[in-house]
Structure formats: C-alpha cells, structure tokens
Amino acid sequence: MIFLVHRSEPILPPSSSLRLMLTAAVAKNVTAWVNERAYPGGLMHFFGLFGSEYIVPTDHEGLVEVLSTRSYDFEKSRAFRRYSVRFFGDSLVTQEQEVHNRNRKTFMPVFNQTNINAVRPPLTSKSRQFNDYISSLLKMSGESQRSSEGRGTAVVPVTDVVFRATMDTGSILALGIDLETIKGRNTHILQAFKTLFASNRQKKIRFILHNLLPGWLDQLVPSTEAKDMDRARILLVESVVNMMQGKLAKNERTGDHLTYLSNLEQSGPFNHDEYIGQLRTIIAAGFESSGGSLSFVIYCLAANRDAQQSVREELRNAKHEYERLPVLNAVVMESLRLFPSFGLLLRRAIRDTTIKGRLIPRGTHIGICPKAINCSRELWGDDAEEFNFERWIDRSDPHNPTQVPTGGAPSTACMLSFGYGTRSCVGRHLAMAQIKRQIALITERFYVETEDDKVPHPSGLFASTPPLDFRLRFTEVE
C-alpha cells in the first residue's frame, strides 16, 4: 500500500494508484530506493493510500530502536491481526504487548539451542527422508532420464517436497507427532496448509480489501477464496485438537527433547483452547517460513555451482558437526540474506515516540523491509545484491577458516532474515539446524541444477516462498 514517491526530507504530497497497490513488488521497490541514494538521517519517508505516512529505517541504528529498544511502541495493524486470527488463529504472530511477551516465553525452552541439540536425530532422519523421496522420483523417471554418465536424474518440484519435510519437523516440535507427509501420509493436512498459504491475485485483492473495509462490511463481500480458507482452517483446528487430545491421553514421553505441548504440560494446568493457535502456528511456520527459506537455499545451491562444490569438498573432511562448518554456514547465510522470509513488515506507532531522535507521531506506519536492508549497498558493499558466500568466511588463517557472524556488515541487525530483537523468529535455531542438515545431505547425494536462468519470483501469502511448481534438476552424485 505504498507508492513510488519517496524522500528522506521533507513530507511529500500523497499519490494514489490502486493498480500499483495490486501489482508492485513493494519490497523490490523499497530495495531500489534504498540503493538509489543515501539517506543521511537513516530514515526514508513517503506517503501511501489516503495520505498515510510511512517511515522506513535504512540503517542498523534505526532498526535496533524499532525492533528492540522501542519495540513495544509499535504494533501490527488491526486489519492484519483480524485477518490472521480469522484464518490462522490467535498466536504469537498476532499478539502484542504483555500477551506477546508472556506467550513468547512459552516458546523459549522448546526453541533454545540446548533443546535443538537434543532434536538433531529426528532432524537428520527427516532430512534423509527428503533425500529418499528425491531418489524415489529419480527411479520413477526411468531409463529415459539418465545423465550422460548413466546416473539417475529428474526434474523435481522442489518447493512441494520441501514443504512436506519442514511441516513434518514443525509437527514434531509442536506435538511430538510426525505427520509423515514426506511419506504420503496426512495429505489432507498438507492440502489445507496449501489452501491457506498459496498466493494468487484474488487472495491479494481480498487481503487489500480486508485492510481497507470495516470488519462488518468485509464479511459481506462474497469470496470463494475466503470460503475455501475457512474450510481449511476448520480442518486444521480439528486435526490439531485431535492430535493434542490423543497425545495428552497417552501421557507418553517424546524422546529426549521438549515439544511445545510437553513444555505446557510441565508448566502446570493450561487452557487447551488458548494454545491451539500456537500449536498451529508452529506447524505453519515449518510449512511456509522454514519451507520457503530452505527452498531458496536449494535454489542458490543450484544457481551457484562453485558454492555447491565448495560445500561438497568441505563435507568430505567433516565430522557431520554441521553447525561448525564455515562454508556450509556461509552458503546458507548468503542465500537467506538474498531471500529473506518476509519482504516487508508493517508496524504502526501506538503512541508518540522517536526513532533516531526524530518525532514519530502516533498512527505513523513503520515499514521494516528485510529485503532492502539485506541488500543495502550502504551496509553490505557494492556487491550487496550479488551472491558472494565468501563474505561470511574469515580466511586470515588459510588452514582454519572461521565464520564471520555479521557477514562484513556493521551489525547483526543488518541481517533481517529472522528479524531482530524482541520480535525475532523464536524458531531461528531450529530452522538453521534443519536447513544446514538438509543442504549437507543433499550436496553429498545429488548434484542440483537450475533448468533455466530464471530467478524464482517470491510467492506465498505472507512469507516469501518460491512458487509451488518451482522445479530444479537433481542428479545422483554416484
């Protein structure tokens, strides 16, 4: 809902174009503006629909204020929360202030590094199931699909396969139950998530109308998409309730790691209805956010053969301690930098506040654009929009390369793929652990190639994911 008029100072007159709202790649536009010229005050200022003001921090100091030190001065829009609660449930994604702070604490024991270390075996097992699924597709391709060296090869709908594996992982962490969609089970749950999260023009128009219209009027506008999403929501609520009740009735221990449900049990009596939304959100985050991120990392692996070969060579001498491997880490981090999970996040000031000493009146919209920050030349250098995994590696000792936590940027706040501060992704450690394992195991077993020079256009209703029909070629290493 923003327009191609921008300036750091002063206030500009409003502009209007519904067509632009529907067709513009907003994050791409903001990224272009950030790299078009310098913003000495670290704040970009422009107008949107009906003259609403937007402020976008363009440096790490402003980002730290919005996302950390003054984070509770800003909230998601009511329209976004109303839409999300209707279709996805009330959860950490929609909650604000003390409710958000309190419920965030219920996630921390499950998603801290200690528990993620304990969950490594099922993560590795799920990654191997992904590879086995790819191998089965190669076998199904038959003798007509053989590489010049005689190895099995096939073009794979990679996003669809990834969604299955990452959603299974989400259900393991949420409930201690493996949905096994990667094995073809619980396809009704998989399809329900696809119905909710797959993006199309009609859904985008519906979301815009939802933001523009009063709630009572929005409900009166007929929409086939909304009816389908309501049915999918009901199915998922019923499925999660049944799985939760079954798990609680069995009262069985789930491996050596905590799940979100077992953590709630250990904390004492809890209102089951209150946490249904949280459980659904964990599974949904596995499906869309983690799934989209892993899909883009696999794409970057395929599009950058030198990086793929470097990972393969590093793994030959590794002891499978994936978290410590600098090249593997660098390829993953660089891919996530170029393809963050969210293109643009909007907040609204709920009180008069300041950013970098500038007065921000109550009601002002704040845009956090991970794509623009991650690709800012001011923060990352002239090659900010290019894939360069070496920026994450310190080779000052040629025999002992190490990881560079900031990638050469001035601050960790310049890498917004998982957010920052009190609103950062609680599942970051889990996502990184799964992505690194999956990339390592894929690289050991397959060569991955693009079919053409096209870069997958970020899709997804909320998170940025490749299209469901996005395909890559997998060929057996041996």
TrEMBL record:
Its cofactor is heme. It comes from the Eukaryota. GO terms for molecular function: heme binding; iron ion binding; monooxygenase activity; oxidoreductase activity, acting on paired donors, with incorporation or reduction of molecular oxygen. InterPro entries: Cyt_P450, Cyt_P450_CS, Cyt_P450_E_grp-IV, Cyt_P450_sf, Cytochrome_P450_monoxygenase. Gene3D superfamilies: Cytochrome P450. Pfam families: p450. Heme binds at residue 425. The keyword Cell membrane does not apply. Keywords: Heme, Iron, Metal-binding, Monooxygenase, Oxidoreductase. The keyword Oxidoreductase applies. Belongs to the cytochrome P450 family. This is Cytochrome P450. The lineage of its organism: Eukaryota, Fungi, Dikarya, Ascomycota, Pezizomycotina.
